[in-house]
Amino acid sequence: xxxxxxxxxxxxxxxxxxxxxxxxxxxxxxxxxxxxxxxxxxxxxxxxxxxxxxxxxxxxxxxxxxxxxxxxxxxxxxxxxxxxxx
Length: 86
Description:
Elements: H1 4-30, H2 42-48, H3 76-81
């Protein structure tokens, strides 16, 4: 059994996840894949972030995460899932 406080925290996390998914679906559906991250910083995202597992820097509009650029390497979680990116 969990406490009321734990329940509320989990509910909050689920809502944040759902909102993130709605944002990502909206970006994909509208084809308006834009980011506030300057292009000169895309390289660090390309080498550290993952299209499946997300942005290492927790940027909601990560160019890898929203599909503007492809990642160069599998992330540590991809390695655990046995996924390979070139």
